[in-house]
Amino acid sequence: MATARDFNTISPSAGALLMMKALTDIPFAKETAAMVGDLESFARSAREKKSRVMLGRTIHFENRYKTIDKALSAIDPVQVLELSSGFSCRGLDMVLHKDVTYVDTDLPEFIANKKKLVDSLVADQQLQLHGRLYVEPLNAMDVPQFEEVTRLFDGRPVTVVNEGLLVYLNTEEKRQLCATIHRLLKQHGGYWVTGDAYIRRDMSRLLDQPQEAFDEQLTKFLEEHRIDDNKFDSYEEANSFFESCHFKVLRRIDIDYASLSSLKLINREIEEEKVREWMQGRETWVLEPV
Q1: Which terminus has fewer CB within 10 Å in the chain: N or C?
Q2: Shortest CA distance to 216 belongs to which of 51, 79, 41, 18?
């Protein structure tokens, strides 16, 4: 069964991802990174290495985050469930500006520390929340736990959000998660915004540098978790998969080139066409249950 897997081995990647996001203007990324690691040292190392692979990854993760925000802005949700959020503070940022119920979740062993970080940010910056933010433990593959967490919602529509989750799941596990989300959305109404429409691409060719040149440890992590194997062969295959799980694709979110603050990490301009070429291996999709 999928729930027998130890998904806690995924959690260490959240720290590396946070450090890259801290090089951007993503809300609370810098503050959170400074609380959990040596951001100054990481930023200095990034500048010294001048790695195209690292630049490509940073742009990738910033684009993934911001295309999800773009989708959420169009939906204007009143209730949100974010799965496997890692160190992302999207929920905190949203409840600062909107009267929304936001349930931010991740694995029990991880989320306790995340809650302390969020509480510290709220207290230290004296933030006034307009919405309701819950930071709750949830293994998204644990159906009873999923159903327990979703009792925090009332009868209004729910928007489910995830980024960087499906690439850790094999096909059977993806189908199980799709079925769980489908039940929730059929009950409440709403949408699923996923940043995980990933297809297999040879990024080393695009970046003119093998990915091992930047971070051998991260490359090993990706291999151990079979990230490439868990991606789709094409967007057509991804669409067919979601259709087979009783979802239809309502919208595919385009890259917002002008919003990418990570382009300023180097002292020369990168053409929009080149950045779009780098980003062709992933899309953010808005899904609706049928």
Answers
A1: N
A2: 51
Query: Which H helix or E strand runs over 21?
Result: helix 12-21
Instruction: For residue 53, give Cα distances in angstroms to 27, 59, 203, 214, 218.
Output: 23, 10, 8, 6, 12
Beta strands in 6-152 (DSSP E): 79-83, 101-106, 132-137
pTM of the predicted protein model: 0.89
Q: For residue 80, give its domain range.
A: 17-289
Residue 33 belongs to a domain:
yes
Count of positions (residues) in the chain:
290
Pairing mode, strands 247-253 and 79-83: unpaired
- Mean pLDDT score across all residues of the chain: 87
Q: In the chain, how many domains are there?
A: 1
Segments of the chain with pLDDT less than 70: 1-13, 46-51, 202-223, 225, 266-268
pLDDT for 268 equals 61
Q: Is 7 exposed, middle or buried (0-12, 13-18, 19+ CB in 10 A)?
A: buried
Nearest-CA neighbor of 66 among 272, 288, 257, 277?
257
Per-residue pLDDT reduced to its tens digit, 147-183:
999 999 999 999 999 999 999 999 999 999 999 999 9
